[in-house]
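Example 9 (inverse folding). The structure is encoded as follows.
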């Protein structure tokens, strides 16, 4: 039973994922009532519902002639990247005794210090953990938000609780896991993402992509959703459903983000969620405020193989002063079509996008100063720290540049203590609400930081 318990406790898996389990052992476990099985798809209020991801949208189901049941069989398209849930699929859920995790007294080995803003947020997280509340930590880009979690995670682990940090992006999982292993060396930690080899490790502290949360049920006493607004979490109800279902009925939930959704911002303003803001960066300088620069009909200009003059002047100046820059474009097609015009000035200029296999190398080349500039899609809006960087958005009025995308892009600039300023420009052909809200959000945070004495002016 121990094996099955460690493999299944807190999870909902497809029967087909339990390859080691013989039909006899499965039957025995069912009779002992230590596992429960449910159909993959069910009709609820007359609507087909996926029992794993909660999908009820008829457009997100398909049907095919099924090799397993030999019939015309419906399946969920919504969570198919985690393995197919079909009408004839069985989901298996652990109902036996729960795993008892160790009580880790004083397990936090992190030696750093928290800024006053970080400390206040860390205290809020500890309180939320102790009182099983939901809380929002709204920390500006570059404030150092991971460390803010450490005392709260330690508080949960000291009570033998199970903790999950979920983030939409695999990059973040890979970056967080070693930092957590260093901070909590005595705790079993697993990192989960597509292709991870630790999926069957029974870990007390789990770092996971939000997709992998679909395999958990009533598992965690504390769930942290990092970068809650980032694609695809905000785009996908299923992942929110998964995050909710992965929690125990009495548990705490922490949202950690630099750019909360409008909905979370409203809750914070109305005081309907416990919220701590960290409005200043660790280096105590304000965040550079984006400036607007009208650049006319840039699409037309590019189609005539011209670069709008304000954009041209901007990057030529960066080239002349030998400072690194990122030029954000709304679409790959436009970016790649105009790359050659830019290369006439600077042949080394490269472009990156999400499918680019050389993405990491190109960013590294920029970091090391081997190349001065990169053209990029929104793929580099997060997680990139380059000293002395300047950034510009071409066509900032395009729909892909949401408020949070623009705040994140602005957040790439001025991150280093020895170079805390930088130029951030929105080149546009008409201002949008998203642009105005992004600028206002940054100004409001800087104002709050000044009022709370968190920046040196
Ligand atoms: Zn589904
Ligand atoms: Zn079938």
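The amino acid assigned to each position is listed next.
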């Amino acid at each position: 039973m121990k094996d099955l318990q460690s493999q299944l406790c807190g999870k909902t898996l497809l029967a087909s994922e339990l390859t080691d389990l013989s039909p006899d052992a499965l039957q025995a476990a069912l009779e002992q009532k230590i596992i429960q099985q449910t159909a993959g798809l069910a009709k609820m209020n007359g609507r087909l519902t996926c029992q794993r991801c909660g999908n009820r949208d008829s457009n997100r189901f398909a049907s095919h002639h099924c090799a397993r049941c030999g019939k015309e069989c419906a399946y969920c398209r919504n969570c198919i990247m985690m393995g197919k849930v079909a009408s004839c699929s069985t989901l298996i859920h652990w109902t036996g005794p729960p795993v008892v995790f160790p009580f880790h007294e004083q397990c936090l080995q992190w030696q750093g210090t928290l800024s006053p803003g970080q400390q206040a947020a860390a205290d809020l997280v500890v309180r939320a953990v102790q009182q099983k509340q939901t809380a929002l930590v709204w920390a500006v880009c570059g404030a150092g938000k991971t460390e803010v979690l450490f005392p709260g995670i330690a508080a949960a682990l000291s009570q033998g609780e199970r903790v999950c940090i979920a983030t939409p992006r695999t990059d973040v999982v890979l970056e967080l896991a070693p930092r957590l292993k260093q901070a909590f060396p005595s705790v079993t930690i697993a990192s989960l993402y597509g292709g991870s080899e630790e999926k069957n490790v029974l870990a007390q502290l789990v770092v996971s992509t939000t997709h992998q949360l679909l395999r958990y049920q009533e598992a965690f006493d504390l769930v942290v959703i990092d970068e809650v607004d980032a694609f695809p979490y905000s785009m996908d109800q299923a992942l929110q459903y998964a995050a909710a279902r992965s929690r125990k009925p009495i548990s705490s939930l922490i949202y950690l983000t630099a750019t909360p959704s409008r909905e979370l911002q409203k809750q914070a303003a109305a005081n309907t969620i416990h919220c701590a803001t960290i409005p200043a960066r660790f280096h105590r300088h304000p965040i550079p405020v984006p400036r607007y620069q009208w650049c006319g009909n840039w699409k037309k200009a590019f189609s005539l193989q011209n670069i709008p003059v304000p954009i041209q002047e901007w990057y030529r100046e960066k080239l002349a002063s030998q400072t690194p820059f990122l030029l954000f474009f709304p679409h790959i097609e436009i970016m790649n079509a105009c790359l050659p015009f830019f290369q006439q000035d600077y042949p080394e200029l490269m472009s990156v996008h999400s499918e680019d296999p050389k993405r990491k190398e190109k960013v590294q080349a920029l970091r090391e100063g081997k190349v001065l500039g990169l053209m990029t899609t929104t793929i580099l809006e997060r997680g990139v720290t380059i000293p002395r960087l300047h950034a510009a958005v071409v066509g900032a009025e395009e729909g892909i540049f949401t408020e949070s995308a623009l705040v994140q892009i602005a957040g790439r600039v001025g991150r280093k203590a020895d170079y805390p300023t930088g130029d951030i420009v929105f080149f546009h052909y008409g201002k949008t609400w998203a642009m105005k809200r992004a600028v206002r959000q940054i100004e409001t945070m800087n104002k709050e930081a000044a009022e709370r004495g968190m920046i040196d002016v």
